[in-house]
Amino acid sequence: MSPRPVLADVEKGTELPEQVHRVTRADLVRYAGASGDLNVIHWNERVALEVGLPGVIAHGMLTMGLAARSVTAWAGDPGALVEYHVRFSRPVVVPDDDAGAEVVVRGRVSALLEDGRVRVDLTVTSGGDKVLSLARAVVDLS
By the 8 A CB rule, do 84 and 70 touch? Predict the structure, then answer.
C-alpha cells in the first residue's frame, strides 16, 4: 500500500496508480452470497444469453465497489471517501474460465475543493470498454 497522499502534494491532474482487478465466476458466487443478489444473470450463461446479455455479467455494485476500493487505496483510508457517483454504461462480462475478466481503474484529480477535499474522476474499463460512466469521487485528504 502506498503512503497516504498529502494534500499539499496533490494538484489538479495528479494521477492515481492504475489498479487492475480480476473478477472470476467464483468471485460472483461469493459476492452473490454476501450481497444477497442471487439473480441468475450473474451465474447462468443460458439465462444471461436468453435475456439479451453477452454472457454472465458481474454485479454492477461489485464493479462499483472495485472502483471505490481503488480510490480508498490511494487515499489510505476508506473513511476519506465522502461522495461517490457512477453510472453503469456496460456490463462486465465474466467468462467461464480461470482467468475471468479484468476491471481496470484509472483516476485523476480533477478539482481541488474546499476543506481539504479533492474530486477524482475515474475511468473504469473491462475488455477495453468503459463500464462505468461519470464515475466521480470526493476524497477528504485533510
Answer: no
Nearest to 80 by CA among 115, 47, 108: 115
- Burial of residue 37 (CB within 10 Å: 0-12, 13-18, 19+) is middle
Contact, 29 vs 43, CB < 8 A?
yes
Query: pTM score, two decimals?
Result: 0.91
Q: How far, in Å, CA of 69 to CA of 63, rounded? A: 10
Region 11-23+58-140: CATH code: 3.10.129.10
pLDDT tens column, 30-41: 999 999 999 999
If you write DSSP's letter for every residue of 75-87 in order, what string do you get?
HT-GGGEEEEEEE
Cell 465466476 sits on residue: 25
Residue matched to cell numbers 471505490: 68
5 grid coordinates: 497522499
Q: What percent of the chain has pLDDT over 70?
A: 96
